[in-house]
Amino acid sequence: MPLPTGNVAWPPPHLRPALDAMHTWDTWWSGDPDRLETLYGGRSGAGPDPKRIQYAGGVVGRVARWWWGTPTAPGERRTKLHVPIAGDLCGGSANLLFSEPPTLTIDHQPTQDRLDELVDDGMLATLQTAAEVGAALGGAYLRPVYDLDMADRPWLDAVHADRAVPEFRWGRLFAVTFWRIVHEDDGQVWRHLERHEPGAIMHGLYQGTKEKLGRVVPLKDHPATEGFAEDISDEGLIETGYDELDVSYIPNDSSRRWRCNPELQHLGRSDLDGVEPLMDALDETYASWMRDIRLGKGRIVVPDAYLQSNGPGRGASWNPDQEAFAGINMLARGDGAQLTVAQFQIRVQEHRDTAEDLVNQILRSAGYSGQTFGIGGDVAITATETNAKERRSMTTRGRKILRTRPGLSNAIEALLAVDRHVFGTKVVPQRPSIEFYDSVQEDPLSLANTADVLKRAQAASTETLVRMVHPEWDKGQVAAETARIQAETGQAVEDPMQAGMLP
């Protein structure tokens, strides 16, 4: 299917529900209070009467009734406080997956050596970015890119889910169109579309409006796309050197809200999906807590006679540090001339308990344990105890690994194919074997003590002990270390029966 040629709506209307949801998740993920107020209509002094909107029906009224949809009273400063727990969730998800680089293994040594160079060229940072973006928006795309003026090798690039129009077949991505706005001027919007199909990439530049794609213009008409014009063949495409699709989609989790929509059901689910009301309540709780602190500041209420005039039109003031007051003309009537101290109670424990319960509920709904985010203290415990406390997070991590491994494997194979096609290397493109490190590792001293006890009990061989202490090693490394230990300890002695030493 070629790039669109007519003045069609863009983005495509069938993606509108997903893009609206991604916009909401992106707003929470950004942690910007101004964007949250704009999203939920809580700004004051702009647009229709906010109070009328809150009493309205439908989606507009429901959204405006959120705490972030409550307008700030005219003449007062904004006292709303935002807790960036959405960013903590998405960042924690990326750390669980890629805090350590995964091991990529290929059964071809020259290809393995070249892959090691490509991995060391910033691939881990790209994977961490893709994982965090995927946790926020529901998924992310990986594609190989290159620039002959910048480097002598290709690299992986992460594309956000809200800048792509995917096409799935039997649950697998078979084509995708990436788009970006390269220029906006006087109501005109210039968009660059990049369509990926098996074996080829097509580029198009369009001049339209915010709602319409507009007409096709030459790629040379804009500096952001003029470089592609030189690489496009007579057929209007760029060959990738890879027979399959060079783009991989990594969904964050299985979709819930779009499971019955055939065009959206494979987009994945955000970690923030369904916890937006809880995050709104958490912000309200912290704002109420801070309000108690502001109101709890000690205030002294004095009679009007205690105030000193600052002159006509300048009001009056009172100096609380003045030690003596003389010449005050006043009539003492009851307690009217007394100083009154106003000191409100600060409900610390009530707010703390509410906030902690909301945070724990948000983490549980997103599939994480509180221990993963430092809730419960930093007490030194063993890896077994850590895994027990973080079982929910470890289960979520395992589920995400199942969805990450196939997409990452395809992306690595496409990267090697582009490397051979463009840079002429002698690599053999193939899917690597991917091994993710344990996010929680046993203390080396604890492992050594366990190995020592097993050795003295003659309950494990030297090879088994080496595997226990170094679980990240492959078979060759374990065999080599076992041989060295046996040679140093004198265990590598030939069997007398096989050496011919006995008659």
Task: Give an overview of the whole structure.
The structure is a single chain. The chain is an alpha+beta fold and 503 residues long. Helix content is 40%, strand content 15%. It has helices spanning 16-30, 33-40, 50-54, 58-64, 85-98, 109-120, 123-137, 226-229, 276-295, 348-366, 383-389, 391-423, 444-456, 462-469, 475-489, 496-499, and strands at 103-105, 139-145, 155-160, 164-169, 172-185, 188-197, 200-208, 215-217, 238-239, 248-251, 299-301, 308-309, 316-317, 340-342, 433-435. Strands 4, 5, 6, 7, 8 and 9 form a six-stranded antiparallel β-sheet that branches. The N and C termini lie far apart (81 Å). Residues 44-61 and 377-386 have low confidence and may be disordered.
Indicate the topology.
Blueprint: H1 16-30, H2 33-40, H3 50-54, H4 58-64, H5 85-98, E1 103-105, H6 109-120, H7 123-137, E2 139-145, E3 155-160, E4 164-169, E5 172-185, E6 188-197, E7 200-208, E8 215-217, H8 226-229, E9 238-239, E10 248-251, H9 276-295, E11 299-301, E12 308-309, E13 316-317, E14 340-342, H10 348-366, H11 383-389, H12 391-423, E15 433-435, H13 444-456, H14 462-469, H15 475-489, H16 496-499
Antiparallel strand pairs: 1-15, 2-3, 2-10, 4-5, 5-6, 6-7, 7-8, 7-9, 11-14, 12-13
Helix pairs in contact: 1-5, 5-7, 9-10, 13-14, 14-15
